[in-house]
Amino acid sequence: VAGENFDQSPLRRTFKSKVLAHYPQNIEWNPFDQDAVNMLCMPKGLSFRTQADNRDPQLHSFIITREDGSRTYGFVLTFYEEVTSKQICTAMQTLYQMHNAEQYSSVCASSSCSMDSLASSIDEGDATSLAKLQRYNSYDITRDTLYVSKCICLITPLPFMQACKKFLIQLYKAVTSQQPPPLPLESYIHNILYEVPLPPPGRSLKFYGVYEPIICQRPGPNELPLSDYPLREVFELLGLENLVQVFTCVLLEMQILLYSQ
Fold it and tell me: Taking the alpha carbons of 170, 174, 177, 181 in that order, is the dihedral positive or negative?
């Protein structure tokens, strides 16, 4: 388990994640920082869900800034994959049995009852809360399907967010589709890693994803730096007044701290 979140139910806890594979293995001028990528791909850790939970894929981005000021950009698509390991499913049910036993004990303690008269001492309110607890806070290995979070990530020298987003979504669709893509998945990964060049300044580049072509454009030397992030999301998240205040603080060269979950 990642962090001290044992009070949470097992499906609401986060677990320690790890990098399963990365390609290429290493680049001399851009070494792979496994710990940083692992932490930034899954900042809250590994998580589990069941068929009753929302499992829509989510995309987020991150920046790794090195000591010399150079930056590397990461774009991550997080999705949920069915757990096929019987051992993990059994462990999850055991965690729930332990958790519910602790909750049962706390309900009993709150009603000041002894173990000898447990059934007779729980009042109607405690019994109702306990029934809700067992209904909504349980995992049945014979009834429920367990899913675990997984990430696919692209690490790039420039923030081509829209292009990376489109490629990751197409790759995810190919992984989950009933019909296999035209070519093996490895060929699409090899293509974007080794065959798609970085567009020169002031030029655009069109390359093929899994299903549809993808276009990315790089500003020229006399243009504003590449900013491929949607401004609409900034307005939706911060609101107009807050955004004006942040912009004012930027112009006044004040220190700014953005805090979120």
Answer: positive
pLDDT over 70 (residue 121): no
**241 burial level (CB within 10 Å; 0-12, 13-18, 19+):** exposed
Instruction: Give buried/exposed letters for 132-149 (b at 16+ CB in 10 A, else e).
Output: ebeeeebbeeeebebbbb
The C-alpha R_g of the chain, in whole angstroms, comes to 24
Q: At residue 193, what is the residue type?
A: L
Find all residues with CB under 8 Å of 85, minimum gap 6, and list them.
Answer: none
Residue 47 token pair: 């998580």
User: Which residues make beta-bridge pairs with 258?
Assistant: none
Q: Which of 181, 100, 89, 174 is nearest to 140 (CA)?
A: 89
Structure confidence at residue 178 (pLDDT): 86
Q: If you search the block for the tokens 């920046």, which residue do you land on?
A: 63
**Which tokens hold the place of 124?**
């109607």
pTM here is 0.78
